[in-house]
């Protein structure tokens, strides 16, 4: 017989002295059979306690649901608000309203700053998610000192309410906000989350005069786009046979569509999280998870209703028809909804982790509408996109981390975004220490916001458009019209006769999502004893951790269940995709619905109107005439943009330095005037780079040496605020500094001013004997230089041509490194050489037209109403 201890087996007869039992030998925890039993007892107590607590949380969720839905205007906003405009009082009544957010104690607003307007999605859930917590879209805007407004809605729509009525109501809300803030420096910033984003874009296309910068977060605009194997929701319309099922669901609701069906679709995308992950997270961490769970469920279960006409419009024209991205929607008033009519900067925020509105659907409209970046500039548009690497759909506008980083940067740099020249940019947010200069853009900001110039090919890399898939979805769109027509003629009359208001209300109450809240609530008598059980569990709580064998096994089993459901989801989605591709990719199917009648693409590019081309030509001629107009402001901005274009990067630190100079030397220059100044000089550099640089001496002809020297010093400070320039940028900066130094040497001296260095190179200004420019020959007005020490004047209208011809003035030498005419200054896309846009425009694609942007686009063109 032997006894085992730390030194190994030992015989009893080898024991010297009295026998001693090894330490801990009789402790059950040191032997796995006893530990298994002991852990089992502890785990059983903990599991029963957690179950009682979870049942009580579910009971609270049910009570919260009843309380929430009993309110007249339920919302999950965490900020106090007051109604400013009720949509029910509008000429076309809707269930929307405009709320003014009352800032919390300690938050000071700057009424000079433009207001923010946040619009929540009406896609099955109730309003308020944009201000769900302090770290939210509303929270960061208030923290930046902006007045905030919120556009919410009621659970039930107004009878007869349509999508176009809601668009008109949103326009009325913005008119009200603008009227309340006449002193604000700019139009309101409007944020649209998910479904609200595309609705706002439609409003901005119809009423572009009401909008400042537009931020669309997690918003789909190109509904057919997506990656194979990743975005299965886009196949639903084809696999269900079109939009007839939407009409059937509305008829079963007596003309009202239940938003709970939309929520159930979202949950079906990730069955592992819906069935196991979310519920197990509550059971696993019930001691700490309950408040977060109840807070989210308050919004998630606040289902709303839509009119049947509203949801049918959305499905037919957007989800299945995909007509918004190609300007193929015409309102009942005869106005074509063309997103190219928007004049405000558009910020598209999406995420690779979003399986509801993935990046291809958020960015695909850019590829649908524009052929090149020059095409974007021709429409006077600034488009910025930011792609998050991992956050999910709700996290885009709910996550506190996203609010503290992305939304904070957008809010604090919104004026910078507003003055960006027309083009396509990608927003990059870098930690301050990783930035080239190692400094942040603003005090207390740990990050730096930059905008990198991008091309259409960069966006196409995210979208990955496939012409074969386009034809498949076009086939579904045509099939949908057939099946919807058959349903309306053969089935709909019978359904409407059978389903009335009472039946519809009963059916809504039996929806699986609503039923789960009813079963786990105080209305269920079987749950009367749950509060007492939960209270007893809290009084004698005995939790166990992962070191418990059975607790560890439970956690492993939960992970395996989630993995199994993920495998099921992947197989299901792969099968759905294979069926869709096979059915709608078959040549016979496409031929049956007219897709093989010609080789034209299913959705044609919207093209350009003769009026727009003529408008571009007129504006290009006007810009050429104004190359000689201006003074210190115009010369400084043109030189700064010439240097910055070599970098292909705009940095918030450079803008903040420039804004500081504007505040000191701007002499009352408003933000709108500053924005127009930037855009005009940028477009002049793109239109005719050589002439834009040659005319710099003319702009400074009336300045003193001290003014030119200060201008050169400001140029160096702003250009270097974001860190060292690259080689090309540094060469351009040196050439501009040398030019200003030469001009300062030739300029008149102010009283008491020290003379400039005598070693300055020869000035590049025109010879004193040169004759003034001839407006008849070169289309440029003869402009008298401004008097010294006077504030720079706004550009004047061009003078009338003289009757007699005079000789053309000699052009000044071009500074070093003018941009080549064969390549766009800010993009790598080929462009045609500068053309005299005053001439009659030639037919051809817009991308080959001169790069000009109008100050104000013509009103949206009315489409002819169809004859009855």
How would you describe this structure to a colleague?
Residues 1-15 and 754-868 have low confidence and may be disordered. Helix content is 46%, strand content 9%. 43% of the residues are buried. Helix 4 (195-206) links the parallel strand 7 (189-193) and strand 8 (214-217). It is globular. With 868 residues, it is α/β, with parallel strands linked by helices. Among the domains are: 81-227 and 317-464, Alpha/Beta hydrolase fold, catalytic domain (Rossmann fold, 3-Layer(aba) Sandwich), CATH 3.40.50.1820; 610-746, no CATH class. The strands form four sheets. The chain has an eleven-stranded mixed sheet with strand order 3-4-6-5-7-8-13-14-15-16-17, with helices on both faces. The protein has a two-stranded antiparallel ribbon with strand order 1-2. Residues 783-795 have a biased composition (Pro residues).
CATH class of the domain at 81-227 and 317-464: Alpha Beta
- Under CATH, the topology of the domain at 81-227 and 317-464 is which? Rossmann fold
Uncertain spans, ≥5 residues at pLDDT below 50?
Answer: 1-15, 754-868
How many DSSP H or I helices? Answer: 32
The secondary structure category is alpha/beta
State mean pLDDT (0 to 100 scale): 81
Q: Helicity, in percent?
A: 40-55%
Euclidean distance between termini CA atoms: 107 Å
Radius of gyration: 33 Å
Strand content: 5-15%
Q: Kindly report the spatial arrangement of strands forming the biggest sheet.
A: 3-4-6-5-7-8-13-14-15-16-17
Outline: globular
CATH superfamily of the domain at 81-227 and 317-464: Alpha/Beta hydrolase fold, catalytic domain
Number of strands: 17
User: What CATH architecture of the domain at 81-227 and 317-464 would you give?
Assistant: 3-Layer(aba) Sandwich
Biggest beta sheet attributes: 11 strands, mixed
């Amino acid at each position: 017989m032997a006894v085992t201890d730390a030194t190994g087996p030992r015989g009893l007869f080898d024991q010297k002295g009295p026998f001693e039992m090894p330490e801990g030998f009789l402790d059950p925890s040191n032997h796995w059979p006893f530990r298994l039993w002991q852990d089992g007892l502890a785990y059983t107590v903990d599991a029963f306690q957690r179950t009682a607590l979870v049942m009580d949380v579910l009971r609270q969720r049910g009570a919260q649901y009843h309380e929430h839905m009993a309110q007249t205007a339920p919302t999950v906003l965490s900020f106090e608000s007051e109604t400013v405009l009720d949509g029910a009082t509008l000429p076309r009544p809707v269930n929307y309203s405009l709320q003014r957010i009352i800032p919390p104690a300690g938050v000071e607003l700057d009424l000079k700053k433009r207001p923010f307007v946040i619009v929540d999605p009406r896609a099955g859930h109730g309003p308020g998610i944009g201000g769900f917590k302090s770290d939210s879209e509303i929270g960061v805007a208030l923290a930046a000192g902006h007045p905030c407004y919120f556009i919410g809605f009621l659970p039930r729509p107004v009878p007869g309410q349509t999508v176009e009525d809601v668009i008109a109501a949103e326009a009325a809300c913005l008119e009200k906000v603008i009227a309340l803030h006449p002193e604000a420096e700019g139009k309101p910033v409007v944020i649209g989350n998910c479904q609200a984003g595309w609705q706002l874009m439609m409003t901005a296309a119809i009423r572009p005069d009401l909008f400042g910068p537009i931020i669309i977060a997690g918003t789909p605009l190109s509904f057919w786009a997506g990656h194979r194997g990743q975005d299965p929701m886009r196949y639903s319309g084809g696999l269900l046979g079109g939009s007839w099922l939407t009409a059937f669901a509305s008829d079963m609701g007596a003309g009202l569509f239940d938003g709970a069906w939309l929520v159930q679709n979202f949950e079906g995308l990730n069955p592992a999280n819906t069935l196991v992950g979310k519920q197990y997270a509550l059971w696993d961490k019930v001691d700490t998870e309950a408040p977060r769970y109840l807070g989210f469920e308050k919004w998630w279960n606040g289902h709303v209703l839509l009119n049947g006409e509203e949801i049918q419009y959305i499905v037919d024209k957007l989800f299945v028809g995909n007509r918004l991205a190609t300007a193929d929607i015409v309102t009942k008033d005869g106005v074509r909804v063309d997103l190219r009519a928007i004049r405000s900067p558009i910020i598209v925020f999406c995420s690779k982790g979003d399986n509801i509105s993935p990046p291809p659907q958020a960015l695909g409209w850019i590829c649908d509408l524009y052929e090149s970046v020059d095409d974007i500039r021709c429409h006077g548009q600034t488009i910025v996109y930011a792609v998050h690497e991992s956050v999910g759909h709700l996290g885009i506008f709910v996550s506190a981390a996203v609010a503290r980083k992305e939304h904070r940067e957008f809010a604090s740099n919104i004026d910078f975004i507003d003055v960006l020249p027309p083009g396509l940019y990608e927003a990059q947010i870098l930690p301050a220490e990783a930035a080239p200069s190692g400094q942040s853009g603003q005090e207390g900001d740990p990050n730096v916001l930059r905008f990198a110039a991008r091309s259409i090919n960069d966006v196409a890399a995210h979208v990955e458009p496939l012409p074969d898939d386009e034809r498949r979805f076009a086939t579904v769109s045509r099939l949908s019209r057939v099946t919807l027509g058959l349903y309306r003629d053969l089935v709909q009359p019978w359904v409407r006769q059978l389903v009335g208001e009472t039946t519809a209300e009963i059916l809504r109450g039996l929806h699986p999502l609503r039923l789960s809240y009813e079963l786990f609530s105080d209305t269920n008598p079987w749950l009367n004893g749950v509060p007492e059980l939960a209270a007893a569990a809290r009084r004698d709580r005995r939790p166990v951790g992962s070191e418990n064998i059975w607790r560890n096994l439970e956690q492993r089993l939960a992970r395996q269940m989630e993995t199994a459901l993920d495998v099921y989801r992947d197989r299901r989605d792969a099968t759905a995709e294979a069926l869709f591709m096979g059915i709608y990719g078959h040549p016979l199917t496409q031929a049956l619905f007219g897709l093989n009648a010609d080789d034209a693409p299913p959705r044609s590019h919207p093209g350009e109107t003769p009026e727009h081309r003529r408008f571009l030509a007129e504006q290009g001629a006007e810009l050429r005439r104004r190359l000689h107009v201006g003074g210190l402001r115009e010369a400084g901005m043109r030189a700064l943009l010439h240097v910055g274009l070599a970098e292909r990067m705009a940095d918030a630190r450079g803008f903040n330095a420039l804004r500081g100079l504007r505040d000191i030397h701007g002499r009352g220059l408003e933000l709108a005037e500053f924005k127009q100044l930037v855009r005009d000089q940028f477009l002049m550099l793109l239109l005719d780079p050589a002439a834009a640089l040659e005319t710099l001496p003319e702009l400074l002809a009336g300045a003193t040496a001290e003014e030119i020297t200060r201008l050169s010093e400001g140029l160096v400070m702003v250009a270097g605020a974001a860190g060292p320039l690259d080689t090309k940028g540094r060469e351009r900066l040196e050439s501009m500094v040398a030019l200003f130094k030469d001009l300062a040497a030739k300029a008149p001296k102010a009283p008491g001013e020290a003379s400039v260095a005598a070693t300055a190179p020869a000035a590049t200004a025109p010879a004193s004997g040169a004759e003034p420019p001839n407006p008849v020959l070169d289309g440029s007005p003869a402009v008298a230089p401004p008097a010294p020490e006077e504030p720079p004047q706004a550009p004047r209208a061009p003078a009338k041509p003289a009757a007699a011809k005079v000789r053309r003035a000699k052009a000044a030498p071009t500074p070093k490194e003018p941009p080549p005419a064969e390549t766009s200054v800010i993009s790598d896309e080929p462009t045609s050489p500068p053309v005299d846009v005053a001439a009659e425009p030639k037919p051809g694609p817009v991308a080959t037209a001169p790069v000009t942007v109008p100050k104000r686009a013509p009103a949206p063109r009315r489409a002819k109403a169809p004859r009855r």
